[in-house]
Design goal:
mainly beta; lipopolysaccharide transport protein A fold; ten-stranded antiparallel beta barrel; 27 strands
Length: about 425
């Protein structure tokens, strides 16, 4: 009998414990409330109206979120929210750096990931594209709290005060503020390019991938269109705090008047210094102008003929001050122009200065102008006016040279009286 009695006492103890647990559960105010909610909410542990949720990473606040309603499942794996009215995002120093709104939100508690859907709008307060907030609109956002990263992997629209654009992928590191963009296209106003002209123009920018930071941004596969000017570069690095940019790798610029190639381009765009330096394998083609044919019966001058033929030039570097519109060419300058009847004209110089406003080219050093079978002229200074209809060459320091001509054997004509 003793074993049977012991077994009965054990069963009685277990039943008493189970009854006590159930009694305690019934005292839980959330469970008492749950008995009065609709059947479709019976699988929830909590249903809260207009709550504010604070997300933390240790002691640091990552974000605060305000909803119309929050549903938490019994297993506490998924938290569902309706109408994310406001989410404030903080950086590592506890300063607000962004905000978000959306119709729906799903929070995976164990994974610490949020899936934000229902036409979400993300606002990034600080970014390298401008001084006003960047607005991001997409189909959905994934927010990984452990990595502190917000990701959009669908076509996404961007808007800010100086422009707008579309990208395929966005990654925003909320800890560092870095923004990664892939396969995008922007249209920006001239103010972003530090252009002081009052008439704004729009610039189209395409790229393969970009990482935007406040101190150093990287762009790969860059294509830029500014009116009828096109530019490409394999890579560009922008240091916005220093107001400095570096482009490299198969640089090319094209416009109706000039094609330019090089391997390295540096740009300084601060208020006190606005200049660009192109180096390493600089090649330039000056395209011919469209000229009107001469009046009937008049011969076309050499100057007008030359305008209809391109000039191919090379040098070591070109430095351009784009506020003053002045360019300096340095090192092994060589320009070759094809002329009528298969002739060529070659120009050599050590340095050159081109004043775009004055339409004047100054050649310095050992300057040589050569046309095979016609002439070779050497001077230390040549000032060339390029104004339409006022094309002149001034050799203020003198020149030396050789002119070639071919004598033609002609039969000497007899005098009228027959005497020689």
């Amino acid at each position: 009998m003793r074993p049977l009695l012991q077994f009965s006492l054990l069963i009685l103890t277990v039943l008493t414990l189970l009854w006590g647990v159930e009694l305690l559960r019934r005292q839980d105010p959330f469970l008492r409330t749950l008995s009065s909610v609709p059947h479709e909410l019976q699988n929830l542990e909590l249903y809260l109206e207009r709550p504010t949720l604070t997300l933390r990473g240790g002691e640091r606040i990552l974000a605060t979120l305000q909803f119309d309603a929050l549903e938490i499942e019994r297993n506490r794996v998924h938290w569902r929210a309706k109408n994310l009215r406001q989410a404030t995002i903080f950086d590592g120093q506890g300063k607000p750096i962004g905000a978000a709104r959306a119709d729906e939100l799903l929070y995976n508690y164990p994974a610490r990931r949020l899936h934000i859907a229902g036409d979400p709008t993300l606002t990034i307060r600080r970014h390298p594209l401008g001084d006003t907030p960047l607005t991001v609109q997409t189909a959905w956002l994934n927010w990984d709290l452990r990595k502190q990263q917000i990701v959009a992997e669908r076509p996404t629209r961007l808007r800010w005060s100086d422009g707008q654009g579309e990208i395929q992928t966005l990654r925003w590191d909320t800890a560092s503020g870095a923004i990664e963009l892939e396969r995008g296209a922007f249209r920006v106003s001239a103010s972003l390019l530090q252009d002081p002209t009052p008439t704004k123009r729009e610039v189209d920018i395409h790229w393969d991938s970009a990482t935007l930071r406040s101190n150093h941004s990287e762009v790969k596969g860059l294509h830029l269109k500014d009116g009828d000017t096109f530019m490409t570069a394999e890579r560009a690095d922008v240091y916005d705090r220093k107001r400095y940019a570096l482009a490299s790798g198969k640089l090319r610029l094209e416009d109706p008047r000039i094609d330019l190639e090089g391997a390295k381009l540096e740009i300084w765009y601060g208020e006190k210094q606005k200049r660009a330096l192109l180096q390493n394998g600089v090649r330039m083609r000056i395209k011919p102008r469209e000229t009107q044919p001469p009046p009937e019966g008049e011969a076309e001058s050499e100057v007008e003929q030359a305008k209809r033929y391109p000039v191919d030039a090379t040098c070591n570097e070109i430095e351009y001050f784009y506020r003053r519109k002045v360019a300096y060419l340095r090192g092994n300058i060589k320009a070759v122009q094809q002329l009528p009847e298969g002739r060529t004209r070659t120009l050599l110089a050590d340095e050159a200065e081109y004043d775009q406003k004055a339409e004047r080219l100054i050649l310095k050093g050992k300057v040589i102008l050569e046309e095979p079978d016609r002439m070779r002229i050497e001077t230390a200074l040549a000032i060339v006016s390029l104004k339409e209809g006022e094309e002149t060459v001034e050799l203020s320091q003198g020149a030396s040279g050789v002119f070639y001509y071919t004598e033609e054997d002609e039969e000497e004509a007899s005098p009228p009286n027959g005497n020689r």
